[in-house]
Amino acid sequence: MRETIHALAHRYHGEWEAMTEALRRGEKPPAIPGDEQFVTWADPHYPARLRQLRFPPWILFYRGNLSLASCPSVGIVGSRKAVARGLQATEQVCLRLREKVVVSGLAAGIDGCAHRSALRSGGRTIGIAGCGLKRPYPLSNRDLYEPQSCRQLILSEYPGFTAPLRHHFPWRNRLIAALSDCVLVMQATCRSGTMLTVNEALELGKSVYCLPYPDQDPAGAGCNLLLCEGALPLKM
Predict the structure, then answer these.
(1) Which of 41, 107, 144, 154 can pair with 111 through a Cys bridge, CB separation 3.0 to 4.6 Å?
(2) 3 state DSSP class of 74
(3) What pLDDT is recorded for position 149?
(4) Cβ contacts of residue 154 below 8 Å, gap of 6+?
(5) pTM, whole model, 2 decimals?
């Protein structure tokens, strides 16, 4: 089963629905040679937290320390177009969370800040990509795709050079939510991918904390909306 799932991931570029249909049909493509590290749903060391998802990934390609997926963790999410308030608060939070694993999405802005701040503070981090690990995106974060120590883990449902397609990013947000004990929203507008991560976290029964923003500040309007709807305020 392990090799079949791996081969299907390559045939269907990691697309979950296509792989699911192929498995239902009993499709068994030939094994794919290569040096990729991966874990499948059928493996005993598959991250247990992901099994609670309605749509657990069939496969995860990874680099780094897979055991981090079982450690106490905090998801940190926010806008790609980060403002000073969001970036500064993210750095401060990561300093306070040195004992926990920071989970984020390897995007520009708040995500990249969270990963780098966690590592600078001596902490650990999990990055979840919306593309193949051999095709880093954005290029400004390509250094994060090459873990240099056991304090890092990079995950993706997509093999090799799979492009960062638009629909990959909201889909990967369910993994951020599942691998996090709680989620911190550091910056969000009212219409953003961050809100999708929040919805996934709430469905899984995870607590959501938001950084408050001044009234009328559009950069944090989504945070303030979530606070009005019952999210917990993040106290700095």
Answers:
(1) 107
(2) strand
(3) 84
(4) 62, 63, 64, 106, 126, 127, 128, 129, 133, 144, 145, 147
(5) 0.95
